[in-house]
Design brief:
heterodimer, A: 152 residues, alpha+beta, 26% strand, B: Transcription Regulator spoIIAA, five-stranded mixed beta sheet, globular, STAS_dom_sf (chain B), Anti-sigma factor antagonist (chain B)
């Protein structure tokens, strides 16, 4: 099992870029397909951006990303010290019911974060939020394989 | 990670070519350009996206922003949208308010 960690201040001028680099490296090592890598990156981007804007309310704080490559899956955990918030409790239905032109600008991030990963888990552990994203490793003919083309 | 954009205005149509990655870092730049377009009285916005490789919810918010800033009844057309970007837009339901081809 390969594991790596990254701690980043959410006030970093290029938070999405740093998160993307971290996920891209992990996805490459794990052999995710380009599509899997894309959606995992999007999920991690949305979760960390949400933590920065809403969890820490733009006032700064740290986010810890960790990645573990297991035989059949890639697991990415995102932890923060903001007040408890379970993205799984976010219900996008009322927002989506409104015609797009009349909607608020925001609120899409969590919908996208959870929409395409294989598993999403949330827990509040030791005073921290922990969001876990899981992508199953496909392997075989349907996968790009390690070193294959990746988006990003 | 890079993002570039270029706007051309002809008549009442603003055409903006986007390339690279549209995320929370780059979205404010696109909003600024859309604001400029609106200031030039355009009634139609065409986004050329064949070189746009990534779009987060920040990019979707740009589309909503454009939709709300342009005159009522204006058309937004996306051209050459890559599959994952198109899927992102569809997930948010915003594909019903724009033309994708």
């Amino acid at each position: 099992m390969l594991a790596c960690r990254l701690r980043i201040d959410v006030r970093h001028v290029s938070l999405p870029g740093v998160v993307a680099d971290f996920i891209e490296a992990l996805a490459g090592e794990a052999g995710l397909t380009s599509r899997q890598a894309y959606w995992l990156r999007l999920a991690a981007d949305e979760i960390t951006t949400n933590i920065a804007h809403h969890g820490y309310r733009g006032e700064g704080g740290v986010v810890d990303l960790s990645g573990e490559i297991e035989p059949d899956r890639l697991r990415v955990s995102i932890e923060d010290d903001a007040p408890p918030f379970d993205p799984g409790c976010y219900d996008p239905a009322p927002r989506l019911a409104v015609p797009p032109a009349q909607r608020d600008e925001g609120g899409y991030g969590l919908l996208l974060a959870m929409g395409k990963v294989d598993e999403f888990h949330y827990e509040y552990v030791g005073g921290r939020n922990r969001n876990t994203l899981i992508m199953r490793l496909l392997g075989g003919a349907n996968a790009d394989g390690p070193g294959g083309h990746r988006t990003g | 990670m890079s993002f570039t954009m270029k706007m051309n205005v002809e008549g009442d149509t603003a055409t903006i070519r986007l390339a690279g990655e549209l995320d929370g870092s780059s979205a404010p730049d696109l909003n600024d350009l859309v604001t400029q377009a609106v200031g030039r009285q355009v009634g139609r916005l065409v986004l050329l996206l064949d070189e746009l490789t990534y779009m987060s919810s920040a990019g979707v918010r740009c589309l909503v922003f454009a939709h709300q800033k342009l005159p009522r009844g204006s058309q937004i057309t996306l051209v050459g949208t890559k599959p994952e970007v198109a899927e992102t837009i569809r997930l948010t339901g915003f594909d019903r308010s724009i033309v994708m081809r």
